[in-house]
Amino acid sequence: MKRLIEIDPDAGFCPGVVSAIEKAEEILAKDGRILCLGELVHNEEELKRLERKGLVTITHDEIKDATFEKLLIRAHGEPPETYKLVEDHHVDLEDATCPVVLKLQERIRKAFQEMKKKNGCVVIFGKKNHPEVIGLNGQTENNAIVVLEDEDLQRIDFAKPLQLFSQTTMDKGHYDEIAGKIEQNLLKANNKEYKIHKSVCGKVANRVEGLKAFAGKHDVMVFVSGRKSSNGKFLYSVCKRANENSIWVSSESDLNPDDFRSVEKVGVSGATSTPTWLMKKIAEKIRSY
Ligand code: SF4
Questions:
Q1: What is the model's pLDDT at position 44?
Q2: The CA-based dihedral angle spanning residues 278, 281, 286, 287, taken in that order and rounded to the nearest 10 degrees
Q3: Buried (b) or exposed (e) across 203-225, using 16+ Cβ within 10 A?
Q4: Could you report the per-residue pLDDT of 53-84, keeping only the tens digit for each?
Q5: Is the shortest distance between the CB of 16 and ligand 1 below 6 Å?
Q6: Do 73 and 97 touch, CB atoms closer than 8 A?
Q7: According to the model, what pLDDT value does residue 12 have?
Q8: What is the pLDDT of residues 126-165, one digit of tens each?
Q9: Best residue for ligand 1 mutational test, from 14, 102, 107, 132 (most atoms within 8 Å of Cβ)
Q10: What's this model's pTM, rounded to 2 decimal places?
Q11: Does the C-beta of 200 come closer than 6 Å to ligand 1?
Q12: Which ligand 1 atom is at minimum distance from the Cα of 203?
C-alpha cells in the first residue's frame, strides 16, 4: 500500500528559538564551546546535536564557576538576579532572550511600578516554575501572583488595582477563560481599575487552527516534541482533540511500526522547539515500515 506522509508546513522552530540556536552555533563554530544557562531548547535530540558541537548546559549555582567563560541566556529570558550574578562573577554574557519575551518583561516591569504606587498587583497566568515565568516574575521583585487554575484566583484581592499578563506559550483559549473569570470578580467587587494584556505569543496562538485542520485530515497524526516542552504539551492536546489517533514521540525510537499498519495518511508535526530535521527523520522511519 502506498502511504502518504506529510510534514506540517507550519511546524518547526519559532523565530525566538531559531535565533538562540543560531547564536549558539556561531559561537560554537568559532570557539568550540559555550555554556548555556538551562536547556537551550526543550528538545532532547536538538540538545544532543548541539552538545556534540561543544554546548554545555549549566545551572544557576554553577554561574560562580564560569568566570571569563561565554554564557548563553536562552529564549525564555532570565530575572534581573541572574544578570547580577553573571556580572559579579565576570562571566561573558551572550543574551539570546527572545525579543517578544524581552518586550513582555519590559511591560511587566512598567506595570509593576504603576501597581506599586496604587497598592495594586500584577498577575501572571502561567506555570510557576517555568523559566519564562521566573524571568517575568523577576521584573516585579517576585511579587506577582502566578495563577494557572481557578483555585489560584483565591489569592487575588479583587478590590485592588490589577494588571494581568500571560506567559507567552500558554493556550490562548485557557488564558481568555481565566481572564474572563478574573474580570467577573473585579466587576463584582466594583473595581474598574484593571488591565488585561494580550501576551500569548502569536506564533503559538496562530498555530492552533492550522494544526487542528492538519491533524484532522490524516489517519494517524505523529506529534514530535521534547517531554518538557510546555508548548509541546499544549499543541499535542490540540492534535489529540482533532484526531483520536495522535501519537506523541520525542525521537524515532518511540515509534511503533504496529501503529502504522494499513494506515494510508500520516501527518507529522511538532512544537515550536522541534527541529525540522527531526520531523524529516521521523517521516523517513515511518516510510520504511
Ligand atoms: S514561542 Fe514566541 S515568545 Fe516564545 S521563544 Fe518563540 S517566538 Fe519567542
A1: 86
A2: 140
A3: bbbebbeebeebbeebebbbbbb
A4: 999 999 999 999 999 999 999 999 999 999 99
A5: yes
A6: yes
A7: 86
A8: 999 999 999 999 999 999 999 999 999 999 999 999 999 9
A9: 14
A10: 0.86
A11: no
A12: 2
What is the model's pLDDT at position 68? 95
Which is the catalytic residue, given 94, 132, 183, 193?
Answer: 132
Ligand 1 center–CA 14 separation, angstroms: 6
Same-fold call for 15-98 versus 100-200: no
Out of 42-51, 113-122, 140-149, pick the least confident.
42-51
- Grid coordinates 524571568 are at which residue? 135
Architecture per CATH, domain 4-12+204-288, reads as 3-Layer(aba) Sandwich (3.40)
Render pLDDT for 192-209 as a digit per residue (tens, 0 to 9): 999 999 999 988 777 888
Written out in words, the top-level CATH class of the domain with range 100-200 is alpha beta
Write the residue with the smallest CA distance to atom 5 of ligand 1: 16
Q: What is the pLDDT of residue 87?
A: 97
Residues 6+ apart with CB under 8 A from 200: 166, 168, 169, 170, 171, 172, 175
Of the options 3.40.190.10, 3.30.460.80, 3.40.50.11270, 3.40.50.1460, the CATH number for the domain spanning 15-98 = 3.40.50.11270
Q: Where are the domains of the chain?
A: 4-12+204-288, 15-98, 100-200
Ligand 1 mutation target, pool 203, 225, 274, most atoms within 8 A of CB: 203
